[in-house]
Predict the 3D structure of the following.
Amino acid sequence: MKLNERHLMQLAAVLDAGGVSEGAAMLGLTQPAVSRSLAMLEARVGEPLFLKGRRPLQPTPLGAQLAAQGRVIIAASRKASDAVQGFVRGTSGLVRVGGVPFFMDAMISRMIGEFQTLEPEVTVQQSYLNLPEMVGALEAKQIDLGIVPIGVLDLGPGFEFTEILPGRNVVACRPDHPLLRKRRLQAHELTNFPWVAPLPGSPLMSDLQMILMSIGMSDLNIRYSGGSLMSVINYLAETDALAVLPFSVVFAQRKENRVTVLPYEIPQPNRSLGILRRTVGPRSPAAERFAAYVATAFEDLKHIIKRHENAVVWGR
């Protein structure tokens, strides 16, 4: 026997409200419409659903069982409505974000945690990607947005880039590095110490080559490569090695005081960090909400980062 789910919902509402009129008002229906539904349900099951002469209305044993199922349907309907509203507002759903490893670890992962504290119904899937892989993942709809440094290049009409932070790279080292005791650094002194190689595919690799060209060298003493951000920080803190890192990444580590900026101005790429998205096709409301949160967070943060950058006395 198949029963009409709406009739079960109305039965549950009437019993919970204590009367037909009250139950109808709870559901946003008229009293005559609910009375007809209950009469149809009784006719369908062939048994009474209410005890006669009882006020407020009291169910028969069968009526109580059917009302229990009606409450389950009401709860499921409300959850479905909440899910739709949450999806449309971007307060629930899935955000798939790809990003360059060091920056994701240093800054974006913290922002993901802060965002989810505000929006606990949003799930975030993060993947490490450099620009070529990120473009492919966006085109294949495998991610919703990317956070990546981009220079002067044309990604084509299908992409939108929102800058969140101007790019600046620095030479990083431990706080008590011997070069920090120099009053004025000379270019050749950078070659007296070992270096950490950037991750393969990272734009920092080309930046390291620019440094080599600027100081007239063809090669550096690479002693460590392939590490994560934390492993690079740990390595720098225990050695006299140098590494090219985004200033913002070193800034994010300032409270730990394990790495600092070597005040030597290096050639800067024409590159900014920002949010990369497709311009065509539907967008996830949750991803748009997250992107707006990141952009707002950096709007406040970039002024603090700039003040720290200005405090460094750059030398040649």
